[in-house]
Amino acid sequence: MLRPFKATGTDAMSSSDNKTERTLADLGVTQPDQVVSLFAEVRARFDSQASRPLDHPSWEILRQSWLGRKSGALTLITENWLKAASPDLKRSVGQELNKLKAHLETTLDERKLDAQSLADHSVSIRERVDLSLPGVIRPIGSHHLIRQVFQEIEDIFFSIGFSVVEGPEIETPYYNFEALNIPEFHPVRDDMDTFYLDLPKGAKTPLLLRTHTSPMQIRTMEKQKPPVRVIVPGKVYRRDNPDATHSFAFHQIEGLAVDTDITFCDFTGTIEYFVKQFFGPSVKTRFRPSYFPFTEPSVEFDVSCPFCGGTGTASGGGTCAKCKGAAWIELFGAGMVDPAVYGFVNYDAKKASGFAFGIGIDRLAMLKYGIDDIQVFFQNDVRFLRQFP
Ligand code: PHE
Questions:
Q1: Distance from CA of residue 202 to its chain's centroid?
Q2: pLDDT value, residue 178
């Protein structure tokens, strides 16, 4: 006689009562109606087991104990009841067995789907997003102070009709020097003794890191006929030894306005407007003669010290630390565009007139925000950066 499959420790799930292990004769079943009620009993036991909540493993145990090929209930019934049935009971046992089998199969199929959706449900509970949990706070960065000052200056010039253009940091000597009226042996090249790139032999032109943003004056005028009104923010490079006020990389904003009737008055008026917007309405400006090969006349613009009100004396007495008692602070170089430059860009030097200026941004930022070492701009120390959110 076949022994029943023993499902792992879940007797409640087992199909076995010992009736399926015995033959009909042993059970005293001799009439077809007894067969029917015997099958009804089995079916009721199955139904009660199948009506419990099932996850996938317990569904599998249930299936094994009823339909398992070796010792599931159906196999036992086939062996012990059907095969051993007396000829006059065989027919009704066969019929009941088929009905039971169909019932087991459909019910188990249904319950399998239930078990699956139970599993899906518990996964969705486990993975559900809890919107009441506190969020992850990500620190938000900010613009570097240099970028902020760029922006401030761009806004001021933008408001009076200038547009912003940018140019390459790697330049040819033609744009960085020659077209700006600085021929090869001109002494101002000494100040700009600079970084040349190592190029393969036979390269068409040497290349260097631009020493100022002025090359963009040439590039802009080459592309565009007057009127021209642009500013050019950007990085520039010089072979300076680093100290509190020098760095091999720093920042400038170039300005260029060219038209047919721009005068020295337009020039000083524009600069004055900018300085007052940037430092406040109470500052005064002045200019002193200077020299640049690409402007004529050339000037150096000063602003009355915004920190001591142009007195040279600090508010608590003593000399003002910002202007060192001078009452004026040197701001930037500028001038009327030298007519020689127009020759390089095919402008009619008799008709064109305009002005240009080059503002050193790092110095301006240091002045305005009381920073005494230019190196902090390049060190990316967050303790510094966070002070300028
Ligand atoms: N390019 C000059 C410098 O870097 C500044 C400048 C720009 C002067 C435009 C005059 C006009 O020193």
A1: 42
A2: 94
Q: Is residue 50 part of a domain?
A: yes
Our count of domains for the chain comes to 2
On whether the CB atoms of residues 166 and 205 are closer than 8 A, the answer is no
For residue 356, how far is its CA from the centre of ligand 1 (angstroms)? 8
Q: Is the CB of 365 under 6 A from ligand 1?
A: no
How many Å apart are CA 389 and CA 379, to the nearest integer? 17
- Helix 32-50 and helix 56-67, axial crossing angle in degrees, nearest 10: 170
| Residues 71 and 192 placed together within one structural domain of the fold | no
334 lines ligand 1 (CB under 6 A): yes
> Ligand 1 centre and the CA of 190: distance in Å?
15
Mutate to test the pocket of ligand 1, among 212, 220, 236 (most ligand atoms within 8 A of CB): 212
- Which atom from ligand 1 is nearest to the alpha carbon of 355? 11
What range does the domain containing 188 cover? Answer: 145-385
**pLDDT band per the 50, 70, 90 thresholds, residue 11:** very low
pLDDT, tens digit, for every residue of 207-238?
A: 999 999 999 999 999 999 999 999 999 999 99
Distance CA 125, CA 123 (A): 5
CATH number of 275's domain: 3.30.930.10
Instruction: Give the residue, by CA position, lying nearest to ligand 1 atom 2.
Output: 358
Provide the b/e sequence for 319-338 (b: ≥16 CB within 10 Å): ebebbeeebbbebbbbbbbb
> Is residue 304 assigned to a domain?
yes
Q: Is the pLDDT of residue 1 over 80?
A: no
Per-residue pLDDT of 359-371, as tens digits, reads: 999 988 988 888 8
Ligand 1: centre distance to CA 357 (Å): 6
28 domain-assigned? yes
d(CA 252, CA 186): 23
Residue 132 is assigned to a structural domain of this protein: no
Q: Mean pLDDT over residues 186-195, rounded? A: 82
| Residues 308 and 182 both lie in one domain | yes
Identify whether residues 122 and 150 lie together within a single domain.
no
Does the Cβ of 335 fall within 6 Å of ligand 1?
yes
Ligand 1 pocket, mutate which of 287, 292, 336 (most atoms under 8 A from CB): 292
